[in-house]
């Protein structure tokens, strides 16, 4: 998956470099700005999609290994710390 995301990122960067930065085709400013905005949106979507894929892979691996999800322990952490501090206080 990392290879696919890297190839897509390099392709978007190459299009941006050729059409917006270097302007090999002597395009109008409006077209260059449009291509730049389109490249930015594509890159943003690629990053967000990559984060979703990483999250899904994480949860699939956790469920495959029959590990408990950390959501319950994360929600109970402040209560557990408060209990531990109260136990250490002298009476």
Automatic annotation (TrEMBL):
Membrane-spanning residues: 33-60
Keyword set, alphabetical order: Membrane, Transmembrane, Transmembrane helix
Keyword Transmembrane helix: yes
Name recorded for this polypeptide: Uncharacterized protein
Biological source species: Citrus clementina
